[in-house]
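Following up on my earlier thread - several people asked me to post the actual chain instead of describing it. Fair enough. Here it is, all 841 residues.
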Amino acid sequence: MRAVLMAGGSGTRLRPLTCDLPKPMVPVLNRPIAEHIINLLKRHQVTEVIATLHYLPDVMRDYFQDGSDFGVQMTYAVEEDQPLGTAGCVKNIADLLNETFIVISGDSITDFDLSAAIAFHKENNSKATLILTRVPNPIEFGVVITDSDEKIVRFLEKPSTSEIFSDTVNTGTYILEPEVLDYLPANEESDFSKDLFPLLLEKGDPIYGYVADGYWCDVGHLDAYRDAQYDGLQGKVKIDFAYEEQSSDLWVGQNTFIDPTAKIETPVLIGSNCRIGPRSRIEAGTVIGDNVNVGADADLKRPIILNGAIIGEEAHLRACVISRGTRVDRRAHILEGAVVGSLCNVGEEAQISPTVRVWPSKRIESGAILNMNLIWGEQAKRNLFGQQGVSGLANTDITPEFTVKLGAAYGSTLKLGASVTVSRDQRAISRMVSRSLIAGLMSTGIHIQNLEATAIPLARTMIPVLGVEGGIHVRLHPTRSDSILIEFFDNQGINISKAKEKKTEGTYFKEDLRRVPIPEIGTMAYPSQILEIYSKSFEKYLNVEAIRNSRSKVVIDYVYAVSGAILPVLLAKFGCDAVVLNASLSERALSTEEREGLLKQLGQVVEALKANLGVQVSANGEQLILVDEAGLPIRGEILTALMVHMMLTAQPRGTVVVPVHSSSAVEQIARRHDAKVIRTKANPTALMEASQENPNVVLGGSGEMGFIFPQLHPGFDAMFCIAKLIEMLTIQERSLVQIRSELPRVCHKTYTMRCPWTIKGALMRYLVETHPAENLELIDGVKIVHPQDDNWVLILPDAGEPLVHIFANSDDRDWVDESINDYRQRVQAFIDSEQGGSAIA
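Reply from S.P.:
Thanks for posting it. Predicted structure:
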């Protein structure tokens, strides 16, 4: 006898599992559903199988091939153009069916006695026998009623609640005589339940219903998919397991290592080539595919994990489905009923809420909480905005689709008809992203002043000049060469406030986007004379004569960025002797190693030319590293102290603004000059706002972020900083080596350690509660200060990662080392105690 295996379904209700698999190839207990059906047929001596295919046909053909490895003979019939329906596809192969045959669905798990059903069919001389079963809720199935002779007298496909007249349903398995196919039209769509069986009833041909005993589960939706696996493990259905039973109710494949400290509560199935880490807990009902790694201390409560998945340390999986090749990072939580598609990446401490579905190849950001299905787009983010604007992998996270929507979300928060500037660096990826943003903005009725490729200092300068509502700048991320950074400015040119960021985020996530009619679509203009406008304000705040009369020789490395097209023009106006390196524009971002190589080269050129200083400009004109006349780099805390010292020498009794973690050398220098120090949160926006809001500020920023000259414009400006340095060195008649030797000797160190998102707040509270209030500064993080000297320790949670930074500062190196070690231990002990408490709870 031949069997027709109906395997053409796309399984819409099983998505995302069926996004890249046909429904019959979705695995149940590590074998495709279709393989379980073939094993059932084989048990009843049905070994010739014709599979009808439509959706992703090659997946099944590649797996079963000619069927010889599975003990059957497989042939395939593919519906190329359009699906012909359950009966139409069988009619299509009528020439292969010249004796009694069985039609069986490829998307159900069952152990029906097919031999008994076939015998029943033959005893009753039936033309068509439907294998039936009884279910408690027949609303999703075709309901059938039979008479006392088991003849079918009535049936109804998928009835409404009011139409249910029986609990006996059609299982989609039929035993048929070949002549019934003569009733069906060729090459037309037709269905057994809707077309053929009603026609047979009408003509009086005998149709019988065989009510089968045993297990049957139509794997039609995700809940049923999980239930079929649990039922299989509990022995409710007779199926052939893919692996040997290692001990009672524990099936394990070959070459699998289970750490002796792992706790397994049976029944559990674990595939071949797996690694189960120490102290992991695997509860009854868990199914683990082949080539799966489970990290230490993972907690698995009945998940279905498919082939090739990686489960990180301390991950918590609860009755969810993890598809093939997906990576779940440490301490992530995936809750009941959630389904994660193939090749996804779930970040550290991310949480996927119950019943949420994630389509294939998505990335869930560390710490993100995903409460809705993730179908389009590439990733789920905890927030759009990070410490500094919106950032992500170029053309992976930051795609044209994403940026159109981001532009529309930002535009929707502004008044209809408002204008904003859009600018970028010179790279093609930035051009693409800026154009997508422009399209989104214009769709909400926002007008664009397109500054095109220019340095950020120029973009900030133009915002108040043009009188626009704000601005957007797109560039490669200063520290990650594969990422894009998008910054949003207010009407002064300062990065927008947290409140405005939240408003844009809310609009984006709620999709509350404004769409305007054609007459109100935004327009675009291209302002001219940008460099001239910037140059005038540049000259206004410089002693141009001092620079002109300077005999300084300066070597400037532009690292192939857009500032290289601007600053040489400005310095040439002042007659400055500047040797320029790497000023041509490049599409490619340099790696850290390449940048360090150029810095070393810069030092050699400065020494060889006997120049007064060298400067490497980066971050699209915002940041710089100095090189003194000996060729040694000046950066970080030393650069901060040097700039503060020079500016306060030029303008004593001024105010400087620095981030909370800058070294106490700043206060020591300020005391020499009767000056004031203001410390801010460790983010660019806070520095810009404080530099604008406070009186008499002569300098803001730090060596890491760049320097702000508030009179010029509110942002960081490496180009003005270079000109100002030349001016001050000339007027003060000192060299960088001399100034460096005058700086206070302060030891300032930092240590970074992991800290889960969920513990950061409790850690800060613990530190506040365990230190005297008079010794605390809570500008950003928790800073423990010693009033009698400049010693302090700062514990600062990272804004974008599950990390915490410990800074220690003192004139005494030993005190710094001891303090960092002490607080490392304190923080780790608190994290351990919190995690222990949550595990107990």
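Confidence is low (pLDDT under 50) at residues 159-165. That should answer part of your original question.
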